[in-house]
Amino acid sequence: MGALVWLLIPLVAAIGAGLWGSWANRTRKVRGDGPELDGYARFREAMEKSHSGT
């Protein structure tokens, strides 16, 4: 009987994780890559600037 209890713990945790994941994803809006690409472009520009100290 104790072994069944130990097997139920991961099962309940997996069910809980699935429920939480579906709840957390319920309000996610589909958005494009625009903000990420803009941030990457700013990062590249900053990395390409020449530094006078080096």
The H/E string reads HH
Structural Rg:
23 Å
- Work out the oligomeric state of the chains in this entry: single chain
The share of residues in helices is over 70%
Summarize the helices and strands and which ones pair or pack.
Layout lengths: L1 H23 L9 H15 L6
Description:
There is one protein chain. The model has no long low-confidence stretch (mean pLDDT 85). The protein has 54 residues and is mostly helical. The protein is 70% helix and 0% strand. The protein has helices at residues 2-24, 34-48. The longest helix has 23 residues, at 2-24. It contains two helices and no strands.
How would you concisely characterize the structure shown here?
By secondary structure, this protein is an all-alpha fold. The chain has helices spanning 2-24, 34-48.
What attributes does this structure have?
54 residues; 0% strand; mainly alpha
